[in-house]
Design brief:
With about 120 residues, this protein is mainly alpha-helical. It has one domain. Helix content is about 90%, strand content about 0%. Helix 1 crosses helix 2.
């Protein structure tokens, strides 16, 4: 008689429960892994965004001081920098659809790069 065939229903039920418990544990670990990756991605993106914002603010102040130096007036220098950034914001608003497509393309490309990386690691 083949040793792989269960002898009775009780041992079959034990095997099924063991399989289900193992599968449930695997599922929990997989969800934990995905949740951890999402949280890590959010934290990383937040840190990058804050750093980019700080760099932008520092460059804006630097530009304002540069204009102030050229015009020999803090008010005129900061006013010119304000006008420059206002015009930049208006230009971005006019090209909003192109900017949105660009950002969406970056986000989608990044998602698929990560997804393909996961598939290659697991496969």
């Amino acid at each position: 008689m083949n040793k792989n065939i269960p002898k009775n229903l009780s041992s079959l039920w034990i095997d099924v429960r063991t399989y289900l418990d193992t599968w449930l544990e695997f599922f929990k670990l997989k969800m934990l892994e995905k949740g951890s990756k999402i949280i890590a991605d959010l934290v990383t993106n937040t840190v990058v965004l804050v750093c980019m914002l700080m760099a932008f603010l520092a460059s804006a102040v630097t530009l304002a001081f540069y204009f102030s130096h050229l015009l020999d007036s803090y008010a005129k220098g900061f006013g010119c920098a304000t006008i420059f950034f206002t015009l930049l914001a208006i230009l971005i608003l006019k090209k909003k659809s192109n900017v949105e497509k660009f950002i969406a393309g970056l986000a989608i490309r990044r998602y698929f790069e990560k997804h393909c990386e996961e598939v290659e690691q697991s496969g």
